[in-house]
Design a protein that fits this description.
The complex is a heterodimer of chains A (about 180) and B (about 250). Chain A has about 180 residues and is mostly beta strands. Chain A is built from no helices and 16 strands. The radius of gyration of chain B is 18 Å and the shape is globular. Chain B has one domain: GHMP Kinase, N-terminal domain (Ribosomal Protein S5, domain 2, 2-Layer Sandwich). Classes of the chains: A mainly beta (about 180), B alpha+beta (about 250).
Chain lengths: ~180, ~250
């Protein structure tokens, strides 16, 4: 394995030598670095491990978002962050969370588990169409507001209670609910 | 302007004792701002400039989005206290023009197709101005973009050349800019340690074709020196990060 620090524009090799990976580009049969970082050659694929990574959404990623709309069988979620990155996403696409992917048990009405303006943590199960799943115990609602008075809800066992008006609600909660971290 | 024009060249040396082909002292530091995705602080002579890069990020307003590539926005701004006479804050004709030409210098270098629908915002703030702020800003922006991890074809390095008392000099200072006969800012695309093309070229004043050729050669020489300092700034920042990880 080759370990060399390169800057954008540095020539790494010829297209005959390697397959172009990430962080590199090809021009006139030559391969150049596109970012600053270390050159990594693996299985004949040459890529540059950048100094700072830009978050791309892939299948299996854990993401943070806010519910912007709840339809009959879907919740639409505006993505804000990818786990492991303290950097805004390239385009904050609207992802979809279908009732069938909310929890393991049968769920008839999505409003029993997710509501408008909830902050949720979810796993990407389809990166192209931005489909999410919250089936795992760590995934689900991290913060939610009372549907009556809009006060922040506090966890009480398996339910959520409003300290302001006493209203009790149900959600598919994440194990991180109310902890302020995800 | 009834003031007497000072002698700018005495015994083959310039006002600050530099040779004709000598740069002002340069200091570059990458990654100085915590909240920015990429940043850079540069000192070129008395110029003090901070550059910040944000993105690739969501574009607002939405109608500016390009579905096939990223859009680049560049803002050159001078702090009110950056010049001798307090400058009214906000953009003026000069800074709008500088922003435009600087953006156009960087645009073909950034691999925009990799970031569809997003925007890359570059902000450069002149905290203290001497002469050649637009070139210093481009140098800073280039380093900040690399610090942000934005994919680029190569590096942009900029330097100005001036004509002073009939002599072509590198990297003019304020007096030379004010009383000189011409000022020519250059920016080059440097790839694989070689100057590949001109990314920005402006001229103000009078110059012959011969002098222009000479100016280009001088600028290329200066740009290579700056290029090495830019590289070193990234390397320094990078090696520090290596230690933090371990």
């Amino acid at each position: 394995m080759l370990m060399k620090f390169v800057m954008p524009g540095d020539r790494i090799g010829l297209v005959e030598e390697y397959v172009t990976g990430s962080g590199v580009y090809e021009e006139n049969g030559e391969i150049f670095a596109a970012v600053a970082g270390k050159v990594v050659v693996k299985d004949r694929t040459v890529s540059v491990e950048p100094v700072k990574r830009i978050p791309h959404i892939n299948k299996g990623d854990v993401v943070l978002g806010r519910v912007v709309d709840v339809r009959n069988s879907m919740a639409l979620i505006e993505l804000a962050r990818k786990k492991g990155f303290d950097r805004s996403l390239m385009h904050t696409g609207i992802a979809a969370l279908h009732v069938s992917n909310v929890q393991r048990d049968y769920l008839k009405d999505i409003n029993e588990a997710i509501r408008y303006m909830d902050i949720i943590k979810a796993r990407v199960i389809d990166a192209e169409n931005l489909k999410l799943s919250t089936k795992e115990p760590e995934m689900g609602v991290l913060k939610s507001l009372c549907s009556v008075c809009k006060h922040e809800l506090v966890r009480e066992g398996n339910t959520l209670k409003c300290p302001n008006c006493g209203n009790v609600e149900k959600r598919k909660m994440s194990t991180d609910y109310g902890k302020g971290k995800w | 302007m009834s003031e007497e024009i000072p002698r700018l060249i005495v015994d083959g040396k310039r006002l600050d004792g530099r040779d004709f082909d000598e740069l002002r002292p340069i200091k570059i530091e990458a990654g100085v701002l915590r909240r920015a995705d990429g940043s850079c602080y540069i000192e070129m002579g008395k110029n003090k400039i901070v550059a910040a890069v944000y993105g690739p990020r969501e574009v607002h307003p939405r109608h500016l989005q390009d579905p096939s590539r990223a859009i680049i926005r560049y803002r050159y701004n001078m702090a009110p206290f950056s010049v001798e006479e307090r400058k009214k804050p906000g953009p003026d004709r000069r800074s709008i023009e500088i922003s435009k030409v600087s953006r156009e210098a960087l645009e073909p270098v950034i691999l925009k197709e990799l970031f569809p629908r997003s925007g890359i915002d570059i902000f450069v703030e002149v905290l203290q101005a001497d002469a050649g702020t637009r070139t210093a800003c481009l140098n800073a922006a280039s380093v900040a973009l690399i610090d942000a991890g934005v994919a680029m074809r190569g590096m942009i390095t900029a330097v100005a050349v001036a004509k002073v008392e009939g002599e072509i000099v590198l990297d003019p200072m304020k007096e030379e800019d004010n009383y000189g006969e011409a000022d020519v800012p250059f920016a080059f695309l440097i790839r694989n340690g070689k100057i590949e093309s001109i990314a920005l070229l402006q001229m103000d004043g009078k110059m012959s074709a011969e002098e222009m050729k000479k100016a280009l050669e001088l600028a290329k020489k200066g740009a290579m020196q700056i290029y090495n300092i830019q590289r070193e700034a990234i390397m320094r920042k990078y090696s520090r990060e290596e230690e933090e990880v371990e």
